[in-house]
């Protein structure tokens, strides 16, 4: 597909004439060639769905609202945490503990009181995706999991709704635009839904905060181009950005003639169910892994080793007294031998009959227990701390009572 082939007619017809206040507000747009009053009226008439109010959703929402989009729907099921503030710039310190959709809506109304904002405190799912996509001119997907990204692609294909897609990981990001009937879709580029844990999440892998602004701004630009019919969208092109190298590259791709057409949401519904199960594990439940609650942890005696599988920097925030440190990656590489080594170095003798593993929320510790179960001594009991150190801190805010129990 050539650049000329990628040009599309405007998605949205111009809305009513602008008021004097709007003309003053958007004056820098009005002087742009091929944009002008008509382009701004298209933006004011547009309805946009944004999936996620996190790292990518933050710049997307801010810039679309500032640009003059008339109606925005925000979908997110999460609450603001302190660790979000490094990159999710739509939220502030006072918003910690608040739902992200509520926080984001308040920020957008401060920016533009006339903006229509609809919030959905929940996930995009197979039950609501088709209706949501059908009810908007364009969708921007800033989701943090594979299942939702493929659900967005399939819903776009089934409803004919243009989709702007972006991802970030550590120091790099990607952006593409999928317009059903006008070029390839996500499944032409990446045919199969990856396993949920095939790539570390932001908590494990990290992400450069400012990268979100670069990628999110590119996504917002794509939406504006589609709505107004200007420029050349990233249809059939994948923009790749390497922040450390300071380099952009473009991968061109075409429709796969052998790819099955999306006819329903059956496959992606199964992937969403798996992702939901993984999210449940983040709240402390892990199928097939024995757990211990924080209250029982405080009652254990000197036959237990408490193993912290978080990273070094996380222990600087809070430590359960007496815990031994063994990052999860070492367990992944060396299994029970890594546990034996750290116990030997800490003079933990063979009298220990149980290992309790903890992380921040219970996800990594559950994985560690699952891995260690394969080659741990037969008499060794392995358990994961339900809810992680967060739950422990809530149970015993000082943690002093635990001091010395595991040493």
Topology:
Elements (H helix, E strand, L loop, with lengths): L19 H6 L1 H4 L5 H10 L1 E5 L5 H11 L3 E6 L23 H12 L4 E6 L7 H6 L3 E4 L4 H14 L3 E7 L2 E7 L7 H4 L12 H4 L3 H20 L8 E6 L4 E6 L13 H17 L8 E2 L1 H4 L6 E5 L3 H4 L8 E2 L2 H7 L1 H10 L8 E5 L4 H10 L8 E5 L2 H8 L12
Parallel strand pairs: 1-2, 1-4, 2-3, 4-5, 9-13, 10-11, 10-12, 12-13
Antiparallel strand pairs: 5-6, 6-7, 7-8
Helix pairs in contact: 4-5, 4-10, 7-11, 14-15
Features:
Rossmann fold; disordered C terminus; five-stranded parallel beta sheet; Oxidized Rhodanese, domain 1; 407 residues; 2 domains; 37% helix; single chain; eight-stranded mixed beta sheet; alpha/beta; 13 strands
Short note summarizing the structure:
The chain has 407 residues and is α/β, with parallel strands linked by helices.
Question: What report would you give on this structure?
Answer:
There is one protein chain. This protein is of the alpha/beta class and 407 residues long. Helices cover 37% and strands 16% of the residues. It contains 17 helices and 13 strands. The strands form two sheets. The chain has an eight-stranded mixed beta sheet, sandwiched between helices. α4 runs parallel beside α5 and α4 packs across α10. The protein starts with 19 loop residues before the first helix and ends in a 12-residue tail after the last helix. 40% of the residues are buried. Residues 281-285 and 398-407 have low confidence and may be disordered.
According to CATH, the homologous superfamily of the largest domain is NAD(P)-binding Rossmann-like Domain
Helix share of residues?
Answer: 25-40%
- Uncertain runs: 281-285, 398-407
> What is the correct CATH architecture of the largest domain?
3-Layer(aba) Sandwich
* Order of the strands making up the biggest sheet: 3-2-1-4-5-6-7-8
Radius of gyration: 24 Å
